Amino acid sequence: MSGDAIVHRAGLLVFEGCDLLDVGGPYEALLTADRLLRRRGASHRIEVVTLGVGTPPLTSYGGLGLVPALPAAASGDLDVLVVPGTIDIDPALADTVLIDTIRSLAARVPLVTSVCTGSFLLAAAGLLAGRTATTHHEDIDALAARDDVGAVRRGVRFVGDERIITAGGLASGLMLGLHLVERLISRELAVATATQLEYPFEEHEGARS
Predict the structure, then answer these.
(1) Is the pLDDT score of 2 beyond 60?
(2) 3, pLDDT greater than 70
(3) How confident is the model over 106-128, as a mean pLDDT?
(4) Cα-flanking dihedrals φ and ψ of residue 154, to 5°?
(5) I need a labelling partner for 81 at 20 to 30 A (CA). Which of 4, 68, 97, 180 fits?
(6) Given a cut of 70, is residue 140 above it in pLDDT?
(7) 182 Cβ contact list (under 8 Å, min separation 6)
(8) DSSP letter string, 3-17
(9) What residue spans of the chain are helical by DSSP H?
(10) Which one-letter DSSP state was computed for residue 18?
(11) What is the pTM of this model?
Protein backbone atom coordinates (compact mmCIF):
# COMPACT_ATOMS: atom_id res chain seq x y z
CA MET A 1 0.00 0.00 0.00
CA SER A 2 1.17 3.52 -0.73
CA GLY A 3 2.26 5.36 2.38
CA ASP A 4 0.23 8.39 1.27
CA ALA A 5 -3.02 6.48 0.69
CA ILE A 6 -5.97 6.43 3.07
CA VAL A 7 -6.52 2.70 3.53
CA HIS A 8 -9.87 1.16 4.44
CA ARG A 9 -9.39 -2.42 5.69
CA ALA A 10 -12.10 -5.02 5.15
CA GLY A 11 -11.82 -8.40 6.86
CA LEU A 12 -13.72 -11.42 5.50
CA LEU A 13 -14.09 -14.28 7.95
CA VAL A 14 -13.39 -17.81 6.70
CA PHE A 15 -14.30 -20.89 8.71
CA GLU A 16 -14.91 -24.59 8.19
CA GLY A 17 -18.02 -25.13 6.07
CA CYS A 18 -18.54 -21.47 5.13
CA ASP A 19 -20.32 -20.82 1.85
CA LEU A 20 -17.96 -19.85 -0.94
CA LEU A 21 -20.27 -17.35 -2.64
CA ASP A 22 -20.99 -15.62 0.67
CA VAL A 23 -17.26 -14.90 0.91
CA GLY A 24 -16.59 -14.47 -2.80
CA GLY A 25 -19.27 -11.87 -3.56
CA PRO A 26 -18.08 -9.18 -1.15
CA TYR A 27 -14.45 -10.17 -1.77
CA GLU A 28 -14.72 -9.63 -5.54
CA ALA A 29 -16.64 -6.35 -5.19
CA LEU A 30 -14.15 -4.86 -2.75
CA LEU A 31 -11.10 -6.06 -4.70
CA THR A 32 -12.51 -4.71 -7.95
CA ALA A 33 -13.22 -1.34 -6.33
CA ASP A 34 -9.64 -1.17 -5.11
CA ARG A 35 -8.37 -2.03 -8.60
CA LEU A 36 -10.38 0.88 -9.99
CA LEU A 37 -9.00 3.20 -7.30
CA ARG A 38 -5.44 2.21 -8.22
CA ARG A 39 -6.19 2.66 -11.90
CA ARG A 40 -7.35 6.21 -11.13
CA GLY A 41 -4.38 7.02 -8.93
CA ALA A 42 -6.83 7.80 -6.12
CA SER A 43 -5.81 8.76 -2.60
CA HIS A 44 -8.02 6.04 -1.07
CA ARG A 45 -7.47 2.29 -1.14
CA ILE A 46 -9.43 -0.74 0.05
CA GLU A 47 -7.35 -3.53 1.57
CA VAL A 48 -9.18 -6.86 1.61
CA VAL A 49 -7.93 -9.55 3.98
CA THR A 50 -9.30 -13.03 4.64
CA LEU A 51 -9.31 -14.04 8.30
CA GLY A 52 -9.35 -17.68 9.32
CA VAL A 53 -11.01 -19.35 12.29
CA GLY A 54 -9.42 -22.76 12.57
CA THR A 55 -6.32 -24.42 11.13
CA PRO A 56 -5.84 -23.83 7.39
CA PRO A 57 -6.57 -25.04 4.86
CA LEU A 58 -10.22 -24.61 5.74
CA THR A 59 -12.84 -26.35 3.63
CA SER A 60 -15.75 -24.37 2.27
CA TYR A 61 -19.11 -26.05 1.75
CA GLY A 62 -18.74 -28.58 -1.05
CA GLY A 63 -15.07 -29.28 -0.40
CA LEU A 64 -13.08 -26.41 -1.92
CA GLY A 65 -10.08 -25.58 0.27
CA LEU A 66 -9.42 -22.00 1.38
CA VAL A 67 -6.21 -20.58 2.83
CA PRO A 68 -6.96 -17.31 4.67
CA ALA A 69 -4.32 -14.60 4.70
CA LEU A 70 -4.28 -14.26 8.49
CA PRO A 71 -5.70 -15.94 11.57
CA ALA A 72 -8.63 -13.92 12.88
CA ALA A 73 -6.75 -13.20 16.11
CA ALA A 74 -4.07 -11.36 14.08
CA SER A 75 -6.52 -9.24 12.05
CA GLY A 76 -5.17 -5.86 13.13
CA ASP A 77 -7.43 -2.83 12.82
CA LEU A 78 -10.43 -3.24 10.53
CA ASP A 79 -13.01 -0.81 9.21
CA VAL A 80 -15.49 -3.51 8.26
CA LEU A 81 -16.01 -7.21 9.03
CA VAL A 82 -17.92 -9.58 6.73
CA VAL A 83 -19.26 -12.82 8.25
CA PRO A 84 -20.41 -15.39 5.66
CA GLY A 85 -23.05 -18.00 6.24
CA THR A 86 -23.02 -21.75 5.86
CA ILE A 87 -25.46 -24.31 4.49
CA ASP A 88 -25.25 -26.37 7.69
CA ILE A 89 -25.77 -23.70 10.32
CA ASP A 90 -26.13 -25.90 13.45
CA PRO A 91 -22.45 -26.96 13.69
CA ALA A 92 -21.39 -23.35 13.16
CA LEU A 93 -23.71 -22.15 15.93
CA ALA A 94 -22.28 -24.83 18.23
CA ASP A 95 -18.70 -23.69 17.50
CA THR A 96 -17.91 -21.57 20.55
CA VAL A 97 -14.55 -20.49 19.14
CA LEU A 98 -16.24 -19.14 16.01
CA ILE A 99 -18.94 -17.29 17.95
CA ASP A 100 -16.43 -15.89 20.45
CA THR A 101 -14.21 -14.75 17.58
CA ILE A 102 -17.10 -12.88 15.94
CA ARG A 103 -18.01 -11.29 19.25
CA SER A 104 -14.41 -10.25 19.94
CA LEU A 105 -13.88 -8.77 16.47
CA ALA A 106 -17.23 -6.98 16.53
CA ALA A 107 -16.27 -5.23 19.76
CA ARG A 108 -13.55 -3.31 17.93
CA VAL A 109 -14.76 -3.09 14.32
CA PRO A 110 -17.05 -0.13 13.55
CA LEU A 111 -19.10 -1.87 10.82
CA VAL A 112 -20.06 -5.56 11.08
CA THR A 113 -21.90 -7.30 8.26
CA SER A 114 -23.13 -10.77 7.36
CA VAL A 115 -24.26 -12.65 4.28
CA CYS A 116 -27.01 -15.29 4.20
CA THR A 117 -27.08 -17.42 7.38
CA GLY A 118 -24.18 -15.42 8.76
CA SER A 119 -26.97 -13.41 10.42
CA PHE A 120 -27.53 -16.40 12.75
CA LEU A 121 -23.89 -16.17 13.78
CA LEU A 122 -24.23 -12.44 14.48
CA ALA A 123 -27.34 -13.19 16.55
CA ALA A 124 -25.50 -15.86 18.55
CA ALA A 125 -22.73 -13.34 19.21
CA GLY A 126 -25.31 -10.94 20.68
CA LEU A 127 -25.22 -8.41 17.84
CA LEU A 128 -28.83 -8.48 16.63
CA ALA A 129 -30.75 -7.90 19.86
CA GLY A 130 -33.20 -5.07 19.17
CA ARG A 131 -32.10 -4.89 15.53
CA THR A 132 -33.83 -5.80 12.28
CA ALA A 133 -32.09 -8.44 10.19
CA THR A 134 -32.50 -10.54 7.09
CA THR A 135 -31.13 -13.82 5.70
CA HIS A 136 -31.77 -16.37 2.97
CA HIS A 137 -35.50 -16.61 2.18
CA GLU A 138 -35.61 -20.29 3.24
CA ASP A 139 -34.23 -19.42 6.69
CA ILE A 140 -36.07 -16.19 7.45
CA ASP A 141 -38.73 -17.86 9.61
CA ALA A 142 -36.07 -19.58 11.71
CA LEU A 143 -34.30 -16.26 12.17
CA ALA A 144 -37.56 -14.59 13.17
CA ALA A 145 -38.14 -17.30 15.79
CA ARG A 146 -34.92 -16.49 17.64
CA ASP A 147 -35.24 -14.46 20.82
CA ASP A 148 -31.93 -12.68 20.17
CA VAL A 149 -33.15 -10.92 17.00
CA GLY A 150 -35.29 -7.80 17.16
CA ALA A 151 -37.23 -8.31 13.92
CA VAL A 152 -36.76 -9.54 10.35
CA ARG A 153 -37.23 -7.96 6.94
CA ARG A 154 -38.26 -10.08 3.96
CA GLY A 155 -37.63 -9.43 0.30
CA VAL A 156 -34.61 -7.12 0.65
CA ARG A 157 -30.99 -7.67 -0.36
CA PHE A 158 -29.72 -6.19 2.89
CA VAL A 159 -30.96 -4.34 5.96
CA GLY A 160 -29.08 -2.48 8.65
CA ASP A 161 -27.87 0.68 10.28
CA GLU A 162 -24.57 2.48 10.77
CA ARG A 163 -23.21 -0.38 12.91
CA ILE A 164 -24.64 -3.72 11.69
CA ILE A 165 -25.79 -4.84 8.23
CA THR A 166 -27.19 -8.25 7.33
CA ALA A 167 -27.63 -9.41 3.74
CA GLY A 168 -29.89 -12.01 2.17
CA GLY A 169 -28.78 -15.27 0.63
CA LEU A 170 -25.71 -16.06 -1.44
CA ALA A 171 -25.51 -13.61 -4.37
CA SER A 172 -26.89 -10.84 -2.14
CA GLY A 173 -23.34 -10.68 -0.81
CA LEU A 174 -22.25 -9.10 -4.08
CA MET A 175 -24.75 -6.27 -3.60
CA LEU A 176 -23.59 -5.97 0.00
CA GLY A 177 -20.02 -5.61 -1.27
CA LEU A 178 -21.10 -2.81 -3.60
CA HIS A 179 -22.92 -1.12 -0.71
CA LEU A 180 -19.72 -1.34 1.34
CA VAL A 181 -17.83 0.34 -1.50
CA GLU A 182 -20.40 3.12 -1.37
CA ARG A 183 -20.09 3.39 2.42
CA LEU A 184 -16.29 3.34 2.44
CA ILE A 185 -15.62 5.49 -0.65
CA SER A 186 -18.51 6.75 -2.79
CA ARG A 187 -21.66 5.82 -4.66
CA GLU A 188 -19.94 6.70 -7.94
CA LEU A 189 -17.24 4.10 -7.27
CA ALA A 190 -19.87 1.52 -6.30
CA VAL A 191 -21.67 2.04 -9.62
CA ALA A 192 -18.37 1.89 -11.53
CA THR A 193 -17.49 -1.32 -9.69
CA ALA A 194 -20.83 -2.88 -10.59
CA THR A 195 -20.23 -1.94 -14.23
CA GLN A 196 -16.77 -3.52 -14.11
CA LEU A 197 -18.29 -6.69 -12.63
CA GLU A 198 -21.10 -6.62 -15.22
CA TYR A 199 -23.58 -6.75 -12.35
CA PRO A 200 -26.61 -4.45 -12.07
CA PHE A 201 -26.35 -1.81 -9.37
CA GLU A 202 -29.93 -1.59 -8.13
CA GLU A 203 -31.01 1.70 -6.65
CA HIS A 204 -33.26 0.57 -3.79
CA GLU A 205 -31.96 -2.81 -2.71
CA GLY A 206 -31.15 -1.80 0.85
CA ALA A 207 -33.48 -1.02 3.71
CA ARG A 208 -32.95 0.74 7.00
CA SER A 209 -33.79 -0.98 10.24
Answers:
(1) no
(2) no
(3) 98
(4) -105, 150
(5) 4
(6) yes
(7) 189, 190
(8) TTSEEEEEEEEEETT
(9) 20-40, 89-93, 96-106, 118-124, 140-144, 172-184, 187-197
(10) B
(11) 0.95
